[in-house]
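Hey,
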Amino acid sequence: KREKLLKLNVEYHRSKGVKIGENVRSFSPLVTAEPYFLEIGNDVSIASNVKLITHDNSVGIAIPEATDAFGKIKIGNQSFIGEGAIIMPGVHLGDRVIVGAGSVVTKSFKDGNVVIAGNPARKICTFDEYIEKVKPYAFSVAGLSYEEKKNMLLGLHESKLFTSKLDDTVT
């Protein structure tokens, strides 16, 4: 049922002009005054409370004869945008980019293959380095009920749970 609702969400945003690839899951509304300035690739997941900002209205304060500055946002294939991230106007994220929760992305990472985080967002590690770091803690809970998932996770040894020790390898 949840996947069906996500699909409806994607179709609605396509109807408003957002360019959206295949297998896109968005837990955030893709709301901007310029939806035609959003381009999202294939196999992308966007977490809750993500903001995609395609204009800067503060220009009107600095330049009285202007109202806004505009910029397109592009998100490449196989990318993930974490909870509460903010993507600013004109940002282009290449393929295989992971944006950490709460990050503010003010510049492009067009080459992709990177994990970025922070305010402003900066490179934390490569995509492949991230895979190696997180692989021992990764599980699939697809198709499990709430109770099945709970029992599986509570039955794991502590050493199998994700810990903050992953952040000690910042490059």
